[in-house]
Amino acid sequence: MLRHWFRQPRTSTLAALLLALCPALAFAAGPQATPSIFAPASTPAAEIRSLSYFVLEITGTIFVVVGGLLAYVVVRFRARDTDDNREPAQIYGSTQVELAWTVIPVLIVVVLFLTTARMIFAIQEAPKPQSALSVTVVGHQFWWEYRYPDLGIVAANELHVPLSSTQDPKPTFMKLLSADVDHSYWVPQLSGKIDLIPNHPNELWIDPLQPGLYLGQCAQFCGVQHANMLLRVYVDTPEKFAAWVQNQQQPGVQDPAVAQGRRTFETQACMNCHAVRGTAATGRFGPDLTHLMSRDTIASGAVPNTSDNLRQWIKNPDSLKPGSLMPAMHLSDTQLDQITAYLETLK
Ligand code: HEC
Ligand SMILES: [Cu+2]
Questions:
Q1: Rounded to whole angstroms, how far apart are CA atoms 62 and 56?
Q2: Which of the ligands is closest to the CA of residue 322?
Q3: CA distances from 168 to 129, 214, 240 (A)
Q4: CB of 307 sitting under 6 A from ligand 1
Q5: CATH code, 256-343
Q6: Ligand minimally distant from the alpha carbon of residue 229
Q7: Structure confidence at residue 1 (pLDDT)
Q8: pLDDT of 14
Q9: Cβ of 272 less than 6 Å from ligand 1
Q10: Whether the Cβ atoms of residue 35 and residue 187 lie closer than 8 Å to each other
Q11: DSSP letter string, 192-245
């Protein structure tokens, strides 16, 4: 089924009719603010959409047939003034009818099962091409860690991947792990949902065909801040991706103007949980902060990465994300200003 990387999604007559009836379902050329599985931008998501249409066609037909028969019977055999109030002839069982309503549904279920199973295996077994990018995704309560083993990059919360195309396939193959409990990776426009399970690596691939920011959400209840464990996938053009990689490979900026803030960062517990490459901070419990300012949001998409939010976060993470696993460190206003100024140099 996936022999060709970029097979056109199957659109049948009924699906086209559905599309015409609900403009909300129309194929979107790029990322959506409210992501829909009906607006795929990557092969696995397109496959899932065509399977969804197939299932909708079958179940829709059943609905029309059963609903139509029911409506017919209700109207045709309604109580009338001319009724003689006699009971109709009572029928006990009919082997033919019972066989029909057992065998037909079983056949339908078998067809749905086989098409679904076939698609799952086709997606899972798609070969990994030479040009593929490898990313290891680690789910943490309540944030995402992204490691690029071949590029020597560790990032957090905002995944950057290259744009793929028919001429130049650049799919991203992800290995999904968990540092604590079960999480679930779901960016509806890019792929299906897959769990991150401790000690059980899973795999997922995407080949985004439109640049932009794709949104998603941890889809498994993993603790109090599960709903704020947001997914942001940035699909970059080749030049933009190369520039991003180049920047992420640099060690943390060392600006003498914020030396005091850096000292405070390194003498408080911050460095036990956070890493800033090129400094003494090598903690792994929290997100890598080496290129914190390259991110649009903090706390896994919970709030925009502004100066005020950053300071507020360091002062009291719970005020922005109640139940997050970063403690409030009870810093003085001066210390807060210094640390914020330091972090803001980490471009
Ligand atoms: C006990 C470990 C721990 C300590 C100590 C700690 N943090 Fe954190 N920090 C975390 C965790 C965990 C997160 C992720 C929280 C989330 O998104 O749910 C985080 C998130 C952050 C973020 C947001 C990063 C992002 O990209 O989303 C910043 C900035 C930050 N911490 C700065 C600090 C500073 C500054 C200190 C010291 C004053 C500090 N942290 C101390 C664990 C810690
Ligand atoms: Cu989660």
A1: 10
A2: 1
A3: 11, 21, 16
A4: no
A5: 2.60.40.420
A6: 2
A7: 38
A8: 53
A9: yes
A10: yes
A11: --EEEBTTB-EEEEE---S-EEEEEE--S--STTGGG-EEEEEEE-HHHHHHHH
pLDDT digits (tens, 9 = 90+) for 117-138: 999 999 999 999 999 999 999 9
- In 3D space, the residue among 298, 310, 335, 318 whose CA is nearest the CA of residue 144 turns out to be 298
Which amino acid makes up residue 295? R
> What's the predicted TM-score (pTM) here?
0.87
Q: Rounded to an integer, what distance in angstroms lies between the CA atom of residue 149 and that of residue 154?
A: 8
List the structure tokens of 307: 């100066």
CATH topology of domain 11-76+127-237: Immunoglobulin-like (2.60.40)
Q: Evaluate: CB of 298 within 6 angstroms of ligand 1.
A: yes
Phi-psi region of 330 (alpha: psi -120 to 50; beta: other; left: phi over 0): left
CA of 317 to the centre of ligand 2 (A): 18
Same fold? 11-76+127-237, 256-343? yes
Three-state SS for 296? coil
The residues spanned by each domain of the chain are 11-76+127-237, 256-343
**262: Cβ below 6 Å to ligand 1?**
no
- Report whether residue 328 contacts ligand 1, using a CB cutoff of 6 Å: no
